[in-house]
Design brief:
Blueprint lengths: L4 E6 L2 E6 H11 L6 E3 L5 H6 L6 E5 L2 E11 L4 H20 L3 E12 L1 H8 L6
Parallel strand pairs: 5-6
Antiparallel strand pairs: 1-2, 3-5, 4-5
Helix pairs in contact: 1-3
Length: 127
């Protein structure tokens, strides 16, 4: 796959932002939303090693579309957490990456039990 960049023209020249930077900004936006956590594990070998499922950033006409899977801590309103993630991702990509975000699709794939949430927040062995 060819390297992907998003370009923005300015009066001083062109700014190119690498695809991986955009993905990283979207991942970090989760940290701002109380009750939202990145997904750990998944099917196949990725699940065995406990890696995170990164956001999917897709070029679209006039900007990007983002798909992000999350886990929500038990006790938090799922729809409010998902909306918070949408807003945080949109704001951060716009402000920090200079990218126009057309849409942010959030997929809640897991509800974390209270004990698992405490381990993640305290930086336990699997955090």
């Amino acid at each position: 796959m060819a390297e992907q960049f998003w370009e923005t023209g300015t009066p001083l020249g062109v700014i190119r932002v690498h695809h991986d930077v955009i993905v990283e900004i979207a991942e970090r936006a989760l940290e701002k939303v109380e009750g939202a956590h990145p997904l750990k594990g998944g099917p196949g070998i990725r699940g065995f090693f406990g890696s995170e499922e990164p956001p999917r950033v897709v070029p679209a006409e006039g900007g990007v579309d983002v798909e992000i899977g999350i886990a929500v801590a038990y006790g938090y309103p799922v729809h409010e957490v998902a909306q918070g993630v949408q807003q945080a991702v949109r704001e951060d990509l716009s402000k920090l990456g200079g990218v126009n975000v057309r849409r942010v699709d959030v997929f809640v794939r897991k509800v974390l039990p209270p004990t698992e949430t405490l381990v993640l927040e305290e930086g336990g062995e699997n955090a």
